[in-house]
Amino acid sequence: MVVSDEKLASDAGVEIMKQGGNAVDAAVAVAFALAVVEPEAGNIGGGGFMLVRLSDGRTGFVDYREEAPEKSSRTMYANADGSDDAKASIVGYRAVGVPGTVAGLALALHDYGKLKLAQVMAPAIRLAEDGFPVDARLASVMHGSASALEQFPTSKRIFLKDGVYFKEGDVLKQPELAATLRRIASKGPREFYSGKTAHDLAADMQKSGGLITLEDLAHYKPVIRMPLRKTYQANGHSWEVITSPPPSSGGVATLEVMNIVETGKPLDWDDPNSVAFTIEAMRRAFADRALYLADPDFAKVPVAALTSKCYADAMRATIDPQHPSASEKVGADEPQMLSRAVDCSQSAAQLPAADPSLAQEVAIEEARHAGHTTHFSVVDAAGNAVANTYTLNDSFGSGVTSSDGFLLNDEMDDFTAHPGKPNMFGLVQSEANTIAPHKRPLSCMMPTIVLRDGKLSFVTGSPGGPTIISATLLTILNWINLSMDAQAAINAPRFHQQWMPDLVITEPTFPMSELQDLQKRGYRMARPRWLGEVEAIGIDPETGERLGAPDPRRSGAAASY
User: Is 59 among the catalytic positions?
Assistant: First the structure.
């Protein structure tokens, strides 16, 4: 079973499994295919995370997150007069981090796959060379991103038809991208990092004021990290959540929320008290995200303390679901609470400073959530499983397309790129996440796999900026705590609170009676909108059947054989 945002990509994964590939082979094929058919989010010019759990129980977390170039610095977006150039971390060549996708996918294939790179890349090459029909969603997304894309001639030519714009049914061919994919398939990942593609990208950067050099590309290496693991008891079963470690913040935040709600009253989304209690747990987890989380290769991140049961006990004691906490006050006592949790968890912690008073309410534009990240899940016949989330950050990334036909990320904005100010998603972040050469920005992406009584049960993840965390968390709670079937767990209305701004976002399908109840309690509500696009696979515990659950919020597609 393969579930992704695009049917053509899901079909590519099935094609590779029919050729004898396992879940990792299929996942690499899906990722390269999405780089063609979902250009606003699928990528070889970005980065991400792949969580692998093999049928023999072995796990690995492939961190192929982008890196800051050698010439980058903490104050690189400050103007000479001391003002801040807010757009420079979002649009254009200076917004681009060193891409990690090609290296990460190749490493996953080498360590966990069975087939050769050329074989798993064949569907993507075919789609780029022959083209594919543009659907209504992609036509709308390309048109909606015209203001960024039209600033760069190559992007305007490829994705806007030189200003004519694609319509539904038009065929999008990408010959430059096809040639680039062929070179990578033939010569391996180093072609991207030291071959023609690398030289072309470095030349593009030098010509247009970007920072990435040949040395930056040659320096890049993906990392295999140990995933986070936590066990929970619910509905008479032992559950284990295997999820993403830093530089992801999503795994830590999700485990923290699950610990807080675990020993409270049983969850029931028809009960406003359950919703309010979970909102308060989210608020505290996001406050901790802002205070403590960063690239673990550059900062001591107190993961064990934040995910400990004793820390959850302390957090739970501060929650009164009848009276919402004020976000500017949440976090004031947490260093002391965390210190006690450090003693409890036997983990050392370094506490980076953060000033929550610097938070600003940022209007989150609907367009920014149209397709900036993408997630897919894969389970093969043997029970090997992959959850993969990767990104360009904003939709179509920086807006820049390289001379070799692939879009480039604007991942530098995921750092604390403008110290003292929120990023494009309204997230306040700490000094520990400021820009430094070769550092990886903090991420919300959190591919996750759930076991039930030791057996594979649920594979999940989502795009959506900070709403990745709430969307993925809620689907896990729906599956584990509320015993929903896979599709119901994905379809259920979602809600989101990220500490700052001090607002609760609900979906249009969220029950009006509960929304009004939250307002009466004093919660500040934002305009409803869709949250995340979870693409998941559940496993029937009786039959072992794979239950593909694509998200109707985007044109998700399940494919199997």
Answer: no
